Amino acid sequence: MAEGDGATPAPDPASGDDRSRRPSVWERARRAMADHNAKAPRGPMGIPEAAEADASDDDQSDAAEGATAELVLERIHHYRDTIRSYQVVIEGQRVGQIRDNKTESYLLRPGSYTLKLQLLWIFSPRVVVELPAGSQTRMICGPNGGIMQAWRLFFAPTTAIFLRFVEEV
């Protein structure tokens, strides 16, 4: 092939020409994660993103649509599971975690939700929570028993963590 005959030469892989190069596994994983993050919801679970600032606040009919309820989870301090976090699962979705002797709160739309906590293969029983609009519902959780109740970890894994409503005094 002569220099002046107008044909373009084939890309040479040794020359570093990027047109024929396939993306590496790491580049494809990074792009896939960026796509996943772009599609992920930004607001709290069940609540759409905040409306634009120019929306009028005069209309009272939209007040019910933007209503929220707060779910507050409090974990007691106990020697069992001290260094592990419980995964908070609402309606089958992991929405967060709660550590030993900590309190977490979640803003949700009013309604009925199924809630459970999970640590490895052990769970709390499923609890149905009714959240009225504008309310705060408090729940308490922790390991169900100490060393004498360790049999629960293997023979009754769905009772190894307790989850109950806080009794108002």
What topology emerges from the helices and strands here?
Layout (H helix, E strand, L loop, with lengths): L24 H15 L29 E7 L10 E5 L2 E6 L4 E6 L2 E9 L2 E2 L3 E5 L4 E8 L8 H4 L5 E5 L4
Parallel strand pairs: 1-8
Antiparallel strand pairs: 1-4, 2-3, 2-5, 5-6, 5-7, 8-9
For the largest beta-sheet, the strand count, sense and barrel status come to: 5 strands, antiparallel
Helix/strand class: mainly beta
Strand content range:
25-35%
Q: Which ranges are low-confidence, i.e. pLDDT below 50, for 5 or more consecutive residues?
A: 48-63
Number of strands: 9
Mean pLDDT: 77
Q: What oligomeric state do the depicted chains represent?
A: single chain
Element-by-element helix/strand order:
HEEEEEEEEHE
Measured as a percent range, the helix fraction is: 10-25%
Q: Overall 3D geometry?
A: flat
Radius of gyration: 26 Å
Could you give the distance between the termini?
93 Å
User: Helix tally?
Assistant: 2
